[in-house]
Design goal:
The protein is built from seven helices and eight strands, in the order H-E-E-H-E-E-H-H-E-E-H-E-E-H-H. By secondary structure, the chain is an alpha+beta fold. It has one domain: Transcriptional regulator MraZ domain (Chemotaxis protein chec, 3-Layer(aba) Sandwich). About 15% of the residues are buried.
């Protein structure tokens, strides 16, 4: 009986070259602009973006800290885009606050503060999160955050938000797999 090679299952020990798709992610070979991976939140509310993800997002190649706008969406996911490209969004927030009735302005301002926050991407690929955003994504210290890239946007999910999205999204895939078995 031969010795079984477990190296393919231990991707964290496989040497990966920048820009090269790790062999465990079969869908990344089909949809090359996308990436998804679970990443542990590090001390100082920092999240190291995987190299494979950074290689798929054009604005991740930076030599200096890059200001970003993180938006907590109603379904709990967090979209991340360069702050410089979000000036119209910031103007819209300011206009909404200015138009608000005085009695509602305080709650609207606090909701905006909880929903939109400035974070930064460091040259080494770490996202420096705000404390509120880190708490939204990881209620338990040392927990994992799901990090995805698609269409030049980075999206972050807590474990709970990711499980809910997965439940809503996988029906079409399960149906396609069932149909493939009958053809």
């Amino acid at each position: 009986m031969g010795v079984r090679d477990y190296r393919p299952y231990l991707f964290q020990y496989c040497s990966m070259q920048p820009g090269r798709t790790p062999n465990w992610n079969v869908v990344a070979e089909i949809e090359i602009s996308a990436w998804l991976e679970a990443v542990q939140l590090a001390s100082g509310d920092r999240l190291l973006l995987p190299v494979a993800l950074r290689n798929r997002v054009s604005w991740c190649a930076t030599d200096a800290n890059l200001p970003l706008l993180a938006t907590i969406e109603p379904d709990g996911e967090v979209t991340v885009r360069p702050l410089s490209a979000q000036q119209n969004s910031l103007k819209a927030i300011k206009a909404a606050l200015q138009r608000a009735e005085p009695a509602k302005r305080a709650s609207l301002t606090l909701a905006a503060m909880a929903t939109y926050c400035r974070i930064s991407l460091q040259p080494d690929g770490r996202l420096r999160l705000s404390p509120n955003l880190a708490l939204h994504l990881c209620s338990v210290p040392g927990d994992h955050v799901w990090v995805g890239a698609y269409d030049d946007i980075i999206t972050l999910w807590s474990g709970k938000a990711w499980a809910e999205l997965l439940e809503r999204s996988t029906g079409v895939l399960r149906q396609a797999m069932r149909e493939s078995r009958h053809s």
